[in-house]
Amino acid sequence: FGTTDIYVSLVYLTCYIASYCFELMFLCRRLGVELGKVQVYQEANRETRVQIEESVRSEDVFIIQTVSKDVNTTIMELLIMVYACRTSCARNIIGVIPYFPYSKQCKMRKRGSIVSKLLASMMCKAGLTHLITMDLHQKEIQGFFNIPVDNLRASPFLLQYIQEEIPDYRNAVIVAKSPASAKRAQSFAERLRLGIAVIHGEAQDAESDLVDGRHSPPAVKNIGAIHPSLEIPLLIPKEKPPITVVGDVGGRIAIIVDDIIDDVDSFLAAAETLKERGAYKIFVMATHGILSSDAPRLIEESAIDEVVVTNTIPHEIQKLQCPKIKTVDISMILSEAIHRIHNGESMSYLFRNIGMDD
């Protein structure tokens, strides 16, 4: 079984059962609908086959796709199901993809490619007419689509968790584990009326400028310029400074915020740095908990007290391996978005108090 589901207005289909990232049945109860009937399976040669078992002609079809560990199979399931609905004359085909896969590959890196742009083109070509997603890694990904994109926010649910589940959160400080996440940390800090701290000087990751196209091809001194009298100035190479924490975390609760937690090495290093600076409790808040490989074991053995993620991605197995991982349910905002789109209502209610920089 896979992880794709359908909600169709007026026509109630049944979907195959799988391990969902959020409580799908609870989502359907909120909407007052039933799951749709569809068969999705892989043949012996690993080809994906989709068979919709009820009419979707002139209906609004909502395809809810969660991203499993087998990302590429998940994507093919989605594309084939969208195309099947399109060829079955569905009126509108809305993809509900809480975590947009390949979202980190949204910039040109050396001689690579912008994979999220390719994926957006494939979805539009298959027949998708609208996309609902949550906390895109870069908001500019919305521009890769030529269809409407609603990029919902999980921060209200995470902020509510901080206020209700973290004792003495007024003694907390919001931490950005790198300068690149400072804007997100600032947004959390301003809404909670808390201070902010930024960790600077950690090892460069894939998001750094050192690996993007501006350093390709490499500069070579013995290659002549277009004109012998011209010499193109070379960019001074970066040198990583010692790790420093800009802001006071001594005797405070440190809350590290980010959008994705997958490879946890940078979070573990940040937690060790905060402990050395005097933080007595460390929380990690993220929207998408991919938690690949041995991330649960590393978290369990680390200085992190709790990792809080939403249920945009299935992580039941990781929670069994690591009791420190907690889940926040975001099905409420997804069901409200589906309801409003189907009834032609304004979506601005879901984006209250969200500024241009958020």
Seen as an oligomer or otherwise, the chain set is single chain
Structural class: alpha/beta
**Sheet with the most strands?**
7 strands, mixed
| Helix content estimate | 25-40%
How many helices in DSSP terms? 9
Q: According to CATH, what is the class of the largest domain? A: Alpha Beta
Q: Tell me, briefly, the overall form.
A: globular
Measured between the Cα atoms of the first and last residue, the distance is 37 Å
- CATH fold type of the largest domain: Rossmann fold
Give the number of DSSP strands: 14
Mean pLDDT: 85
Q: Within the largest sheet, what's the order of strands?
A: 10-9-8-11-12-13-14
Q: Which keywords apply here?
A:
single chain, Rossmann fold, transmembrane, seven-stranded mixed beta sheet, Pribosyltran_N, globular, five-stranded mixed beta sheet, PRTase_dom, Phosphoribosyl pyrophosphate synthase-associated protein 2, 358 residues, transmembrane helix, alpha/beta
Description of the structure:
The chain crosses the membrane at residues 6-27. GO terms for molecular function: ATP binding; magnesium ion binding; ribose phosphate diphosphokinase activity. This protein has two domains: 11-152, Rossmann fold (3-Layer(aba) Sandwich), CATH 3.40.50.2020; 155-200 and 242-328, Rossmann fold, CATH 3.40.50.2020. The protein is built from nine helices and 14 strands. The protein has helices at residues 24-31, 71-87, 115-126, 155-165, 182-192, 265-276, 295-300, 316-321, 331-342, and strands at residues 4-8, 38-42, 48-52, 60-65, 92-97, 130-134, 149-152, 172-176, 195-200, 244-246, 253-261, 281-289, 306-310, 325-328. The strands form three sheets. The chain has a seven-stranded mixed β-sheet, sandwiched between helices. β5, α3 and β6 form a beta-alpha-beta unit. The radius of gyration is 23 Å and the shape is globular. 37% of the residues are buried. The model is unreliable at 6-22 (pLDDT under 50).
